[in-house]
Specification:
Oligomer: single chain
Number of helices: 7
Strand content: under 5%
Largest sheet: none
Number of strands: 0
Distance between the termini: 50 Å
Order of helices and strands: HHHHHHH
Shape: globular
Length: about 200
Amino acid sequence: MIFKSNPDIYKNAYPNWQKTMRKNAEQFALYSAQFKDSADKLINDVGENRGHIVDSFINPALFLYRHSIELCLKAILYKVYLDNGVGYEKTKEKLEGHSLDSLWSKVNNEVRSKYGFLDNQQAKNELKKIGKLIMELHNTDDSSMTFRYPFDKDLEEFQYGNGKESFGIDFKHMQKEIDYVHSRLYYWIYERVANREDW
């Protein structure tokens, strides 16, 4: 048996309690934060990276970060569609898929057309910067498969960068950039969309 409870509550994980404290509309945001926090823990445990230990879990970390961004985009869209009376079936259709390009395009269009916090050039530049970083992530993994599998469906190998063994990723810089995107999506867009009456 894989899923069994322990009589000692400190030896159990409780995956449902956080969900019961939140409205249904907040579930995507909750999961987004959980995936990002998990990736952060992996990267933060590297320390000085002696023996290049980060190479052993860079793919899971990248997948977790990418998935956190996807879920944050879906959190924004879900809230926007809910607030604007879009029906369940149409919402389901609009949230389908893993393309960050498609999701970002929808978020960008909704935010620009329906919300008033893009009222100055600095905010518009911020939105462009977020979009640029999301597109970089999308172009590296356009289907949410690159960091999960070594090959695509045709058994063609996924490649990073130039494909050479010497290609390196500054993982601390990557973490900083993902943190920027996630925090701006979550705190600057999602929180403001979720609390519209406050702006």
